[in-house]
Amino acid sequence: MLKPEEAQDRADALISQARKSGADAADAIYVCDASTQVQMRLGQLEDVERSEGEEIGLRVFVGKRSATVSSSDMNPDILEGLVGRAMDMAREAPEDDYAGLAPKELIAKSGLPAIDGDDGVEPDPAELREMALQAENAARAVEGVTNSEGGGASAGRSIVALATSHGFSGAYSTSGYGVSASVIAGSGDGMERDYAYHSTRHFEDLDNPADIGEKAGNRAVSRLNPVEFESGAMPVVFDPRISSSLLGHFVGAISGSSIARKTSFLLDALDSQVFDCAINIIDCPHRKRGLRSKAFDGEGLPTAKARLIENGRLTQWIMESASARQLGLQPTGHASRGVGGAPGVSVTNLHMCNGEVSREDLISDIRLGVLVTELIGQGVNPVTGDYSRGAGGFLIVDGEIGAPVSEITIAGNLKDMFASLTPANDLTYRHAINTPTLRTDSMTVAGG
């Protein structure tokens, strides 16, 4: 793989070619990935996969017209032709009053923070195989597990470089490692499946593979013999495994493009109370070893910690430059992009802060409710906030977690759900989006 400095040189060179060809403005992004994945099943090696690839994308502007092209061939002659095609396409594109590079005065300067995202470790396939085997063996050793979908281990590295014609040039590298296991418990019509996994930036931060496998096995066995119950309105508690999905819907609703198109259920919610006053939601792009940490965004703007929800109040939209111009605002450093197309938006390491009560206290007064540990399907209307999804988990009876339930449906509206959420104090940072256990009393549950 190239070094970040070499990747940066490639992006800079493509920008230079575009300007020489007559582009009024341009940006280029280079992405290089290499990964190794090993999959074991029933104690035998099932698959070893090694993938390596590099791509470069170029966006050019001719007046108010723009075009984007990309290539996985780094031959100089190919890239020269790429620039020519981009210019030809841009001249024929429709005008767009909002498209363009990020404001020059806002671009990231020198002295960007280090995110410690690449540890330089390269485990070989034999080591990954042993990790995958340990995870699967531990899962299969759990009493009640009858079959396996496999154990896996992976290691990879990525390099990203971005350059713009108005002066930004930067690059960074990240490493990534993962271990997973998925097994089946029971037999016949009573079989149940579950899984566990862990992903990190640094190899030394990975959980013990055997612990991951044991967790997968215990989860599968705990789902055996689901019970039926009477449908109705009742408290729903979201386990941290899946409670972060609620923040995913929140992020989509506050994206600048959704607001500009007027397709968000939070369209009129800026500076208003969206959550309970005890709730804070924070985006932390500079967290050391964070899964999505980065010093600059997809347009070359500096990233910064953002308190999106402060004491329950929505403080800002998240915007790239195009939607910011459409809304008459400034971009927020949340632009994200691949090698094709214009930038979109995304958060980095997002979390909801801890509440004040334990998980046990959160459910202690629930006479009948549901702890949800799995969500199935989509069923969310981003315009109205209507929410209806398949789910699985466990009954809560008289404040205690009880028998498993499956093939249930939970329904409500995200506005009401957000307003009634109560967080526990069990937040851990294991994913890119993290939340504690969450409770809402504004949903209807249909039993399986």
From TrEMBL:
Protein name, per record: PmbA protein
GO biological process terms, semicolon-separated: proteolysis
Lineage, opening ranks: Bacteria, Pseudomonadati, Pseudomonadota, Alphaproteobacteria, Sphingomonadales
Membership in a protein family: Belongs to the peptidase U62 family.
Alphabetical list of Gene3D superfamilies matching this protein: PmbA/TldD superfamily
Organism listed in the record: Parasphingorhabdus marina DSM 22363
An example Gene Ontology CC term for this record: cytosol
GO molecular function: metallopeptidase activity
InterPro entries named among the record's database cross-references: Metalloprtase-TldD/E_C, Metalloprtase-TldD/E_cen_dom, Metalloprtase-TldD/E_N, PmbA, TldD/PmbA_N, TldD/PmbA_sf
Domain Metalloprotease TldD/E central: 122-224
Domain Metalloprotease TldD/E N-terminal residues, every copy: 33-90
Boundaries of every Metalloprotease TldD/E C-terminal domain copy: 231-447
